[in-house]
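REQUEST FORM: STRUCTURE PREDICTION
Request ID: SP-0412
Submitted by: Lab K.M.
Chain count: 1
Length (residues): 297
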Amino acid sequence: MKRETILAAVQSGKILVSDGAWGTFLQKKGLKPGECPELWCITQRADVLDVARSYIEAGADMIESNSFGGTRFKLEHYGLANRAAEINEAAARISREATGPDKWVIASMGPTGKMLVTGEVSEADLYEAFKEQAMALAKGGADALCIETMSAVDEAAIAVRAARENTGCEVICTFTFQRGAKGQYRTMMGVSPAQAAQKAIEAGAHIVGANCGNGMERMIDVVREMRPTAGKTPILVHANAGLPKNIDGVDVFPEGPEEMAGRVRTLIEAGAKIVGGCCGTTPAHIRAIRSAVDQLT
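STATUS: Completed
RESULT:
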């Protein structure tokens, strides 16, 4: 029996739980600074699979994949540009194995690090890079493609179009916002939550939202601003475990599982339909969020 789509599940009234951080988890398993995380999908497959399974066991309805920096533009820093398709397919297959037949894989696609506004890359080159990644992730078994941590609406729109036009996957598009001195939320490129949602939906995103950059408390404000523009389009939030504090040169995320889960009700009331974690979150955080969602529904 074919899985229902994420969109159909949300439209039926379900509140869904996503996964938590991957990068910090891999670092605890031995990923070294300067090492390519995505290559671990091939060289350290068992460790990546363990991360994926840990979030399913914690109660997540969907998990991402270890493919955030999987475009050829990111992989070229490690001399791996020509292995982009191989690495992304492997990443999706690992998450597919972890989810089994009943949960969703929302494969991660992060920014390329290239900026159209400076002329260092063309729209055509960006499109081809995202197309290559999207097709490989779909081949590996992804149900949806999570285009995330975006700052520029032009790059995000190209990624969404590449995913929609070359795969049958659902497409999620999330942006990262910072709060300014006057309390306004903007991406690094000056894009507001309302503008981000509008442009992503116009490009064809099935689900929009925000990830990273903020803890759950600030994400509530972001969702409230995004909701009127998003309309019937579901909103996903992957929040950090609070705002990081640098202690002895190490970023520490202060928000514990219960504290984070304590804001789930307000986040959902603000308009979020899918809730998960980003930097600093662990399976314990996702387990607490799962419990909070179950109590509400």
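NOTES: The radius of gyration is 17 Å.
Reviewed by: T.R.
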